[in-house]
Amino acid sequence: MVLRGGLLTRKEEPVPLKSICVTLSIREFVAGVSATLNYENEEDVPLETFFVFPMDDDSAVYSFEAVVDGKKIKAELQEKRKAHSIYESAISNRRQAFLLEEDKYSRDVFCCNVGNLNPGSKVALTLKSVQELPLEADGALRYVLPAVLNPRYRGSGSFEDSCLDMKPPVVPLEDLPYTFSMVATISSQHGIERIQSNCPFSPTEYLGEYKTSAQVSLADGHKFDRDVELLIYYSEVHTPTVAVEMGQPKDNPVDGFMKDPSAMVCFYPNIPEAQSPVICGEFVFLMDRSGSMQCPISKQDKSQLRIEAAKETLLLLLKSLPIGCYFNVYGFGSSYEAFFPNSVQYTQQTMEEALRRVKLMQADLGGTEILTPLQIIYREPSIAGHPLQLFVFTDGEVTDTFNIINEVKRNRLRHRCFSFGIGEGASTSLIKGIARVAGGTSEFITGKDRMQFKALRALKRALQPAVEDISVSWDLPRGLSAKMLSPEQTVLYKGQRLIVYALLSGTMPPAEATGEVNLKYTLQGKSLENRVTFSLQPKPDDNFTIHRLAAKSFLQAKDMGFRDTPAKDKKDVLKISIDCGVISSQTAFIAVNKNVNKPVQGPLTCRDVPRPILFGAASMMPQYHGCALPNAKSSYFSPASQPTRTSRYVGMPDRQDGCKP
């Protein structure tokens, strides 16, 4: 069953959500998002509530505020334990409080607690974020507003405190009590060719003589029953650029990250075609065969099943491997199976055997236990002269994504990982994370459109010769220096965009001064470089977009979860997160309503919010995440197997209706 985000009580009972309003502003390849969720407590008792929602792994959430009965309460970003302590104290003293944090086990799920919601109160919760937009195979920039939060598999280990541990009732889509609206403004100095979406939108309204700006809005009646995807085609997307953003004003007492100007450099390296194609390599394909892969890719009529989409992609890749390489195919669920005891040489005979077995694959192996087969693959001895290239196909329904990402990271020096997220709601934290730490690329398959492009692009990159000795250097006026914030780049692919961030410290020169940044690398023994000259005059931005994107780039490299971030990195993660106001696993937004002097009266009461039925679950028996599954034997967060959620907080007043802290 697909789990909806939304404001929920501790017993997951409904607080009427009236509307969701999203304002999207895209400039070149950066998106700024402001999302407001409007709620009203129409009952005569105070409520304690929380809401859960998905976010893209690349989103830098930098602002959270609540407007309660017309009065704004701005949240502060604090160290996570301190934020929890403030929240606990406020609730115990009958004060309204708001807490926003990442889920402990996955960077793409957020939780927000709202304590002591008064009878008759209206609350508007607004989150703001920025993110880079990925470049698709056909030149489109892709923006996705996540709407679907799929259940995540509970493997071995303890997962208390996860906001994914929920069991709200289900209702048909037409009975959802809230509306959804979205307005998007897109601008590019190079002109906009067209905008496409998987959802009904108003006709595009172009502005400017050369269509440098456009506005679209989601058509009325959208029920937020699928991820909202925009594909934006500019007239030119491969032009290198450098943007310099002003730091905090000098009269501001702030010190550290926000004080100095920041620079965002976008390279499109002109990597030549390899003189001789790579015919070596060990290609291992890891296929998700868990029960949830039997669900459709999307809510669309006659939508392909996830397992069928994954099989179709895998068949295409198997037919495209070079003769003479080595390969193997693993299927995983609660257990795992391999086609061959060890990787075998790619011949006509072994290819045909693999194709035959792929066609017979079913989503019949239970839960999403991906860690064990990964460890088995990494334990296999390397094949001399054939570097390992790992391809992962999954819907990403894993609770502890940080654990998986860390396992891939530990083995990053011996392989590259290319990942495919299958279906709407695939975990962006898992899919992007494992590719990022192992020098590969990630793709998302949400329909047949562009699937072949994506599959072949990933394989082509895996077959490219390694680009080596990558370095970025700066040529700046005397008295000015650049401190790199982006992690050291170890992989470059032909046609790939490379974005790096730096802080500029020292004395800024006159307005007419320029600087130069140089990307150098080696391909098949030949030295290559790309230079970009840029103006050193920084531009102001009230949202400090570049600073926050730079912080997000740093955090993605260093922040490996609340439990698993190394001690040597935790201090840096905490400092950068708080300096820039960008949430991390070590921080949380906290706000206490000090506008109301009178404590909230009466015991807190809990209500459930329903989730919609997707994929025709009501008519399928047996039910398993909204899909009829054979031999279902996993421990997903499903109504039959969920444990009772326990509170993270202590010292709270008793709740009614059995809702205990």
Give an overview in words:
This protein is α+β, with helices and mostly antiparallel strands and 661 residues long. The protein folds into three domains: 8-153 and 160-238 and 584-608, Immunoglobulin-like; 241-273 and 467-557, Immunoglobulin-like (Sandwich); 282-463, Rossmann fold (3-Layer(aba) Sandwich), CATH 3.40.50. It is built from nine helices and 37 strands. The strands form nine sheets. Strands 7-6-11-4-3-15-18-17 form an eight-stranded mixed beta sheet. Strands 22, 23, 24, 25, 26, 27 and 28 form a seven-stranded mixed beta sheet that branches. A hairpin with a 2-residue loop joins strand 6 and strand 7. Helix 2 runs antiparallel to helix 3. It is globular, with a radius of gyration of 25 Å. The model is unreliable at 1-5 and 615-661 (pLDDT under 50). Residues 638-661 are annotated as: Disordered. Residues 1-131 form the VIT domain. This is von Willebrand factor A domain-containing protein 5A. Residues 282-463 form the VWFA domain. Pfam families: VIT, VWA_3.
